[in-house]
Specification:
This protein is an alpha/beta fold. Helix content is 23%, strand content 13%. The chain contains four helices and six strands, in the order αβββαββαβα. The strands form two sheets. It has a four-stranded parallel sheet, sandwiched between helices. Strands 1-2 form a two-stranded antiparallel sheet. The longest helix has 12 residues, at 13-24. The radius of gyration is 21 Å and the shape is globular. The model is unreliable at 1-17, 23-41 and 153-163 (pLDDT under 50).
C-alpha cells in the first residue's frame, strides 16, 4: 500500500510539476500520451497530417499564384483560428511546415516586424513573407502541382481519370 504524498496525480508528478512552475515562473511540459503538452500557456502541439503528395515547386514569387506542394509556415497570431487556416492550406494541396528552413516557400504572419525565430529565419533564407489577408486571398486560386492536370488525383497514372469524370 502506497502512502499518499499529498500531491495529486500519478506518482506525485503533478505536484512536482506545480513546484517546478512556481520556481521558473511559467508552465512546464506535462507528458500526455507520450507527447509534450503545455498547461496554462499559448503553445499548442501541431496536429499530425499526412505528408503532402506534391513535390515542392520552390519559393512563392511575389504577385504570382500559390502552387500545390509549396511549404507554408505560420508565425504569430492569426484572426482566423490557426488550425482552420492550416486545414484550408492543406486542403488546397500545400505542405504545412512547423518551422522555417531553406525549403520553405512562404511564411504567413500578421506581424512581419516581429522578433520571432521564424521571421528571422525567413529573412536569412530570403523566404517571402505574407500577411494572413493576402494569403487567404491567394488560397482561392492555387495552381496545380507541376505535372498534374487540374482535377486529377495525386499519384494517379496519366491514363486514370478522376472519380466521377466518366473516364
Amino acid at each position: 500500500m502506497q502512502v499518499g504524498t499529498g500531491r495529486p496525480g500519478r506518482d506525485g508528478r503533478e505536484g512536482r510539476r506545480q513546484q517546478d512552475e512556481e520556481q521558473v515562473g511559467h508552465a512546464v511540459p506535462a507528458e500526455r500520451d507520450g507527447a509534450a503538452a503545455w498547461r496554462g500557456g499559448g503553445w499548442r502541439q501541431a496536429r499530425r497530417r499526412p505528408p503532402c503528395p506534391h513535390p515542392n515547386p520552390g519559393r512563392y514569387e511575389t504577385g504570382g499564384r500559390l502552387v500545390q506542394g509549396m511549404r507554408v509556415a505560420f508565425s504569430g497570431d492569426t484572426s482566423i483560428d490557426r488550425e482552420v487556416l492550416e486545414d484550408q492550406a492543406f486542403e488546397a494541396g500545400l505542405h504545412i511546415a512547423s518551422s522555417v528552413s531553406r525549403l520553405t516557400s512562404l511564411l504567413v504572419t500578421n506581424d512581419p516586424d516581429a522578433l520571432t525565430s521564424k521571421v528571422a529565419k525567413a529573412r536569412t533564407f530570403g523566404t517571402p513573407v505574407l500577411d494572413e489577408a493576402a494569403f487567404t486571398q491567394l488560397l482561392r486560386d492555387v495552381a496545380p502541382a507541376p505535372g498534374t492536370a487540374p482535377g486529377s488525383l495525386p499519384g494517379a497514372l496519366p491514363n486514370e481519370a478522376a472519380p466521377g469524370t466518366g473516364g
